[in-house]
Write a structure and sequence with these properties.
Elements (H helix, E strand, L loop, with lengths): L18 H4 L8 H35 L14 H33 L23
């Protein structure tokens, strides 16, 4: 028997597996909450952008101030500039990105009053059949 695929009045298909995650009408945010979150996210974004700019600008500044930065080998013939550009700078970028992501998610959770992902309590929106059943 064919499943009825006509949309319900609000445009969703019946039996959509993401119904409980995407269309929970009880969770709408007020404009004040959204404005507060926007201001907090903007402050966080600007602060992390300034840190990124300062960390990126640090490499040429050190080059101009300390000429031995590119000529004196430190470890196995590698110069401090090479080590900073290939190891320390990407590590700095990864730590900055992880910090921004965690703080931005925490802001969303704190200001909007719900979590986006909880590993300890997540359950699939629909019952999944045991293996071999229905296939």
């Amino acid at each position: 028997m064919a499943q009825d695929v006509r949309p319900v009045p609000d445009g969703r298909l019946p039996g959509d597996t993401l119904d409980s995650l995407l269309w929970n009408y009880a969770e709408f945010d007020t404009p004040e909450e959204v404005d507060a979150l926007f201001r907090a996210q903007r402050r966080l974004s600007v602060s992390h952008a300034l840190l990124f700019f300062a960390g990126t600008l640090l490499l040429p500044v050190v080059q101009a101030v300390w000429p031995a930065w590119t000529t004196s080998p430190v470890w196995g013939g590698l110069t401090p500039a090479f080590i900073a550009a290939t190891v320390l700078y990407p590590l700095f970028c990864l730590v900055l990105a992880a910090s921004y992501t965690m703080r931005a998610n925490r802001l969303d959770e704190d200001l909007l009053g719900r979590t986006l992902w909880r590993e300890d309590s997540w359950e699939p929106p629909v019952r999944t059949p045991p293996s071999g059943e229905g296939y």
